[in-house]
Specification:
- It is built from 10 helices and 27 strands.
- By secondary structure, it is of the alpha+beta class.
- It has 2 domains: 5-26 and 35-149 and 162-227, Probable inorganic polyphosphate/atp-NAD kinase, domain 1 (Rossmann fold, 3-Layer(aba) Sandwich), CATH 3.40.50.10330; 230-318 and 326-423 and 443-483, Tumour Suppressor Smad4, CATH 2.60.200.
- Strands 9, 10, 11, 12, 13, 14, 15, 16, 21, 22, 23, 24, 25 and 26 form a 14-stranded antiparallel sheet that branches.
- Strand 4 (69-74), helix 3 (83-97) and strand 5 (103-106) form a beta-alpha-beta unit.
- Helix 6 (179-186) packs across helix 7 (191-200) and helix 8 (270-277) packs across helix 9 (289-299).
- The longest helix has 15 residues, at 83-97.
Length: 497
C-alpha cells in the first residue's frame, strides 16, 4: 500500500512553519490510470520547534532551490501517464508554496526533451540549474545526450572547455522500467513520493560530491556526479522510430559513428529485443508487465546472436567459462561467439525487483585493483546461446527469470558476470574527485568491443531504452569505461540518489 509521505517540513514563503505531505491517489493504489484520482498535497501549519530557524530566515532547502534556475520537464506519455497529475497536484503547488519560480515544459513530440536540453545556454557567469524530469531512464538519457557542448574547447576531447555551472538532475520515476530509481532511491509504489521527499528534504541541498568516492552506496537524498559510459556505433547505425520499434525505420546515416553517453544500460540480443518489442501499441498500457509479455514473444523464437566480443575486465581474476583469455582481456570467439543475452549496466536493477547486477551500488564507486581512483562500476552480463537442456529456450527462460530471485543468476555456471572497467583508466570524468583537473576522461580505455558476424540480419541494440539499429557488416560497437560527468558538455552533471 502506498503511504503518505512527508515531503517538506520547515518555513515556507508565508513565514509559517509547515509540513507538506504527499497523499497518494487511488490510481497509485491500483497501478491503473483513474480520472481525478491522482495524488494530492496537504499543507499543515505546525508549532515552531525550539530548534527551528527563526521566521526571518529561509530553510536550507529553499536556499538551494532559489539558488538555481528550476526547469521541470514532463514526459507526458511515459509509463502509465500519471506524471501530469503529480506535477499539477503536488510539485507545482509545493514549489509555489516555497516561493520557487520554475519553467514547466511538457513534451509535445518525440524531440521535446532533446530540443529543451539543446536550447540551454550558459551565460558569461556561472549558472546552476535544477532539472526535474518526470519520466524514465530514456527521458534522462535523451536530455543528457542533447546538452550543448564544446564551449571554447575541443569537442572531441573536452580540452580547454569552460565550465558554466552545474546541473542537478532529479528523475521522478514515472516511466516504465525506472532502472535508475529502482537502483538508488528505490522502486515500488512509493518511488515517486520517496524521490520528491529526497529532493525537498533539507539533506538534498547539501553538496555531497565526496559521496561519489565512497565504496558503499551514498545516503538517499544526496546529489552525486552523474555515472555514465560512452558507446559508439558504426556508421550507418540509426535510432529506430519509437512508433514502430524494430521496423524498417528511415535511416539517418551520418559520416561518423553514432555515439551516446549511456546512463543506465546498453544491451544486445534478448534484452534489446524485448525492450524494442515491449513498445508495441498493444503492450504499452501494461506498464512494467509489458517487458514480460515481450520476453514471452521473443522466447518463442530462436535467440542466437553471433559475433565476437572482447572485454577488458577490471580485475585479472574475472573469468568466463566460455572464453579465451590473453593479455588480461577476455575474448569470446569460435564456439563462444554465439549469445542470447548481452548487457552492460551501471544499475543494479533494470526494473523494480529485477536484480541484474547485485554487486552494483548506483552512485557509489569502486577502486580498480587497489588503485586510488574511484569511478562508477560497470558490469557485464552474458548468457550464451549454447545451453544444456535448452529445447524451446527452456533453460534460457529459467535463467532470465532468476534476477527476480535476488539476483540468483550470477551464481549459475552458464552466466558470465563481472566488472569491465578497464585497468589503468580512472573513468571519473571531470566531476570525479580523482580527475577534476584532467581533460582526458573522454578518451578513457575501451571496456568492450562487439562485432556481429557478417551475414546476420540488422542488429537491434538498446541504449537506456532507445533502440539503435546496426546494419549488417557495419563494423564493431565499442563500449568505453564508466566515469562521472561528461567532459564535453558545459556543465558539471549531478543526479539525486
Amino acid at each position: 500500500m502506498t503511504e503518505e509521505t512527508v515531503l517538506y517540513r520547515g518555513l515556507d514563503q508565508t513565514g509559517d512553519y509547515v509540513e507538506y505531505v504527499y497523499v497518494p491517489g487511488k490510481a497509485e493504489e491500483s497501478e491503473k490510470e483513474e480520472e481525478d484520482q491522482g495524488p494530492t498535497l496537504r499543507r499543515t501549519v505546525l508549532p515552531v520547534p525550539q530548534e527551528s530557524p527563526t521566521s526571518s530566515s529561509l530553510s536550507r532547502t529553499i536556499d538551494f532551490l532559489q539558488g538555481r534556475r528550476v526547469l521541470v520537464i514532463n514526459s507526458v506519455t511515459s509509463g502509465l501517464n500519471q506524471s501530469a497529475s503529480v506535477y499539477e497536484r503536488v510539485v507545482r503547488p509545493l514549489l509555489t508554496g516555497l516561493g520557487v519560480s520554475h519553467e514547466y515544459v511538457p513534451t509535445r513530440n518525440a524531440s521535446t526533451i532533446s530540443d529543451t536540453a539543446a536550447a540551454l545556454t550558459a551565460g558569461q557567469e556561472e549558472e546552476d540549474y535544477l532539472v526535474i524530469i518526470f519520466g524514465g531512464d530514456t527521458s534522462l538519457s535523451e536530455f543528457v545526450n542533447a546538452l550543448p557542448s564544446g564551449s571554447g574547447g575541443d569537442s572531441s576531447s573536452g580540452s580547454g572547455r569552460v565550465r558554466r555551472g552545474r546541473i542537478d538532475l532529479v528523475l521522478v520515476p514515472t516511466g516504465t522500467g525506472n532502472a535508475i530509481s529502482a537502483s538508488s532511491i528505490g522502486g515500488g509504489k512509493n518511488a515517486i513520493a520517496k524521490t520528491l521527499a529526497a529532493l525537498f528534504h533539507s539533506s538534498a541541498s547539501e553538496d555531497v560530491a565526496a559521496a561519489a568516492t565512497a565504496a558503499a552506496a551514498p545516503t538517499t537524498g544526496t546529489f552525486v556526479p552523474l555515472p555514465n559510459f560512452r558507446v559508439e556505433f558504426p556508421p550507418g547505425s540509426y535510432v529506430a522510430s519509437a512508433a514502430a520499434p524494430g521496423a524498417d525505420a528511415s535511416a539517418d546515416t551520418p559520416p561518423r559513428r553514432l555515439e551516446f553517453h549511456a546512463v543506465a544500460v546498453v544491451s544486445w540480443a534478448l534484452h534489446a529485443a524485448l525492450v524494442a518489442d515491449s513498445d508495441l501499441p498493444e503492450y504499452r498500457p501494461l506498464g512494467v508487465a509489458r517487458f514480460r509479455k515481450a520476453a514471452e514473444l521473443n522466447l518463442a523464437r530462436d535467440q542466437r546472436y553471433s559475433g565476437e566480443i572482447t572485454l577488458l575486465p577490471s580485475s585479472s581474476s574475472a573469468s568466463s567459462a566460455t572464453s579465451d583469455q590473453s593479455n588480461s582481456s577476455i575474448k569470446l570467439t569460435g564456439d563462444a561467439s554465439t549469445h542470447s543475452y548481452v548487457l552492460f549496466t551501471l544499475v543494479s536493477q533494470v526494473e523494480p525487483g529485477y536484480l541484474i547486477s547485485p554487486s552494483t551500488h548506483y552512485g557509489g564507486a569502486t577502486a580498480d585493483n587497489g588503485s586510488n581512483s574511484a569511478r562508477p562500476s560497470l558490469y557485464f552480463v552474458r548468457i550464451p546461446f549454447t545451453l544444456p537442456n535448452n529445447a524451446n529456450n527452456a533453460e534460457l527462460a529459467r535463467l532470465v527469470t532468476l534476477p527476480y530471485q535476488a539476483g540468483a543468476h550470477v551464481t549459475e555456471p552458464n552466466v558470465d558476470y563481472f566488472a569491465v572497467n578497464p585497468s589503468g583508466s580512472d573513468g571519473t570524468g571531470d566531476n570525479g574527485d580523482a580527475s577534476h583537473d584532467k581533460d582526458d576522461s573522454y578518451n578513457e580505455d575501451v571496456a568492450g568491443i562487439i562485432t556481429a558476424t557478417p551475414g546476420e540480419s540488422p542488429q537491434r541494440w538498446c541504449v537506456d531504452g532507445q533502440i539503435v539499429v546496426v546494419p549488417d557488416a557495419a563494423g564493431p560497437v565499442v563500449v568505453h569505461g564508466a566515469r562521472y560527468g561528461i567532459a564535453t558538455v558545459d556543465w558539471d552533471l549531478y543526479i539525486l540518489v
